[in-house]
Structures are given as structure tokens and as C-alpha cells.
Amino acid sequence: MKKKELIRTRRFKLGVYSFGSILAIAGIILLLNYLSFHIFKRIDLTAGGIYSLSKASKQILRSLDDPVLIKCFFTRNLPPPYNTQGKYLKDLLVEYRAHSRGKVKYEFMDPTDDAELKKEARMSGIRPLTFTQVKSDKYEMKEGYMGIIFLYEDKKEIIPFVKNVSSLEYDLTSHIKKITRREVKVVGFLQGHDEPDMLGNDFSMIQAMITRNYELKAVKIPGNDISVPADIDALIIMGPRQNIQENELYAIDQFIMKGNPTAFLVDNINIDMQTFRGTPINNNLPQFIEGYGIKLKKGVVLDKQNQIIGVQTKRGLFSVQQYVNFPLLVVVTNFKKDNPIVKDMQKVTLAFVSPLEIMDETADTEILAQSSKNSWYKEAMMYFDPLGRYFPAESDSKGPFPLVAIAKGKLKSNFADKDIRETRITEKTIRESSQARILVAGSSKFAQPQFADPPNVSFFLNIVDWLAQDNALISIRTKTQIYRPLKDVSKTGRFFVKWLNVFLMPILFTIYGIIRWRIRQSQKKRMIV
């Protein structure tokens, strides 16, 4: 009897221990699930951390007050290369949910065979796309969806088509930021002096990117006015070809003195891209900018580190596309790495750019971008033949040259020393500011459609964000841009590498064959002995 009771007691204890172990394991699993939901961590060994969220995205997500719902309309089994985008998006949204502490919620839906979901997608602005794929040895057409809807309170934003996963983090974060913000800053573009029409159809791509986060407005200052419109938060003056009137200059100056950031993207030469002939632009803007301590010099910078372009040439009856280095399209890789505008930039191409000169070394100025040490400066140059041969002359100044700079802090007004009685200046004129911020670039063409490659567009958008004091988006936009040019190798080095590639492998195989032959010969001799 005692033996049976002992067995029962042991069984009971074993059951209790087993049940306790099961409860403990279940508790640990639940705890790990809870922690993994709220504390997300992954190791990203890529340069720039392109597969993990940036600090800026994490800060924006942590600051969310109310939930954001992200509805992803994605068709399963899309043809390559689109078949991996849904998975990448889902992995990214897991991070968004974790770093937002559950404030970001997401849903994945396939509307392909669901009439209600198709209707919802269509009413939200997401249209089906047509894809071609090879199936059963023939081309087939397939309809699919790759759109995203963001819902916050009573607001809605959409991405109709996920085009590129490399910019997906920026797209997601910028839309979340846009839909949750309480006010929208207004960026103005000065008009009326033969500037490019930034609000025209030619700039539709850049417009769409800017209006994700800001409102755009054309700024015209009539002759009877001496102030920039009050609703403008930042001003961009881009490539004017005509003089700016005195009352307009005064309005811009006082806008800056009030602490409103302003960018001057200035061209000294107007280029006809068909004939490659230039005509000088002689307006009064460079003289105005010089009053703030940054001088825009005449002429252009040429650089051995430059962009390759395709040029059509005639060979008898045929037209041939010839690719040549064009030193007038300066590829800039020398940036001031502690400034948010260019911190993570890898390259920017500045076309027909004029150099800057810092006039006041004591002012709070920063050179953001410089040409390479293999650049030179031509003060008088009006014909730019892409097929020409360009070499620096002995009399030419050698680089590097400042091409983009900022001045901030304490700046003196251009109208500080003018007599009130001789001008339209009023008693309320601000003669000095301690919180001014201006940016000056020796070219405006990097933001224009014919030169708007992704790095140039990113640089321009970074300038807009800096003007609007939104540095968070800058770090997200530029983190995936990696530019690794080949190092310049001397003629002797190229000759050595070329013939090393030709003869190295045959020589190594020959040596290996001789060694194998000698080993076999020695083995045969030992066998005979």
C-alpha cells in the first residue's frame, strides 16, 4: 500500500512539475512574442544600412500620437522583377509596426479575385497595372495591383504604384509624416524674371516629390510692393535671366533678415543645348548675393571628374552615337560631411557651374560642395563643344573650387547703409539679422529636367528640406545612394594590369603542370626501385 501511495505521489509531483514546465515555457514564449513586437532588432551589415530603418524614421514613428493604418493592395505571384516587392514591403512594415510601438498597423490584400476590394482600390485611386510574363512558352498579359493607402483620422494618402523598393522607406515615412502633420509649410519660387517655371509641366516629377511634404507657390512681387507674401516660409530663386527690380531685392533682403531661409541657384551663362553655344547672363543677382559675403565668379569650372554623355555624330550617311567625357558637367564628390544637406550624398552633377568665393572669412559660412583637385577655371568661355579636347592652360586657376555654400547666423542687410530718403526703404527696415540662412549654388541646371538624374533630384529636395528645416527626411532620402567611381590609374599602371590579366593565369597553369609532372616522375622512379 505504501508503495502504491509513493508511486501516486511521484506521479502527482511529476504531473505538477510537467504542468509547471508547460506554463513556464508558454509564459516565456508569450513574453518573447511581446518583447519582439515592441523591441525589434536586426543586424544590417550593408554600407549605409540600406536594409534597416534610419534614425529619422524611428523618431517619426515613436512620435505618433494616434494609429496609422496602412492598407496594401498587392497581387500575389506577380512576374519578375515585381514578385519580390510585396515581401520586401511586408518585412519593412514589420519594422514600422515594431518601432511605432504598435501605432502603425498594416493589412495586405489581394484584390485580383475580389470585386469588393477592386472597388475599394479603384475608389481610393489605385488602378490595376498590366504585366507581361512568359508562361507555357508564350507571352501572357496579367493584371495586378501594387498600391498602398495610408489612413489617419479622417485623412488619406495613397501610393498608386510601388515603383522602386530602394526609395520605399522614404516613400512610407514621408507619407506618414505628411498625413500626421498639423501644418504645411509653403515653399515659394520667385517668378517674373525669365526663370524656369517650377510649377509648369516640365517639372511635374519634382513637383510631385515636393508636394508630398510642402505646398508650392509662385512668388511675384509687383512694383508697388516691398515684401514677400506673408504665407511664404522659404524662398527659392532659381536661374533668373533678367534683372530683379529694386523693390523686389528689398523684399527678398527683408525676407532673409526676418530669418526666412532663401536659396539662390544662379547661372552666369545661358546654354543652348542644341548648338552648345553660350550667352552671358548679366543680371544684378550676383552683386546682390555678394552683399552677404559670397561672390559668384564669372566663367565656368571644368573637371577631369565629369559626366559621360552621348553625342550624335555623322559618319558618311550614318548617324553614330559617340560617348565622350564632358568636363563642363562636373561630377562633385567632395562634400562637407557634417552638414545635413550633403552628409550622405555620394555625387552630384553640376552643369556649366561657376565657382564661388567666400568674401568674409569671419562670417558663419560653410562650403558644402567643391570640385576635385583635377579641376580648372575658365573665366571667358562661350562655346562648349562636347567633342572638343579640354586641357588646363598654364594661366588657368587650378581647383578645387567652392561650388555650393551656405551663410547663416549674423548677416548684414544689403540696404543697411542706404539712405532712407533716397530709396523706398522704410523706418521698419531690419538692418541686421542674427538668424538668417541662405544657400548659394553656382548653377541651377542640376534641378532642371535635362539634368535631373536621381542624385541631382535628391540634392535639390535636400535643399528644399533644409530651407523648410526638415532635416529628418534628408537622411532617409540619401542613405541608399552609393557612388563608387573607379580610381584614376596611371598609363603605366593600366599597361601592367592589362598584361597581367593576359599572362597571369596561363603562367600559373604552366607552373602547376610542371609541378604535377615532376611529382609523377619522382613517383615512377620510386616504383621502379
Task: Tell me about this structure.
With 529 residues, this protein is α+β, with helices and mostly antiparallel strands. The protein has four domains: 1-39; 55-176, Glutaredoxin; 185-478, 3-Layer(aba) Sandwich (Rossmann fold), CATH 3.40.50; 491-523. The chain has eleven helices and 24 strands. The chain has helices spanning 2-38, 55-62, 85-99, 115-124, 168-180, 204-210, 246-257, 285-290, 454-467, 471-478, 491-528, and strands at residues 68-74, 104-109, 129-135, 138-144, 146-152, 155-159, 186-190, 215-219, 234-238, 262-265, 269-272, 277-280, 294-296, 300-303, 306-315, 318-332, 334-335, 348-351, 356-358, 365-370, 375-378, 397-398, 402-412, 432-441. The strands form seven sheets. It has an eight-stranded mixed beta sheet with strand order 8-7-9-10-24-23-20-17. A four-stranded mixed beta sheet has the order 2-1-5-6, sandwiched between helices. The longest helix is centred in the last third of the chain and has 38 residues, at 491-528. The radius of gyration is 32 Å and the shape is globular.
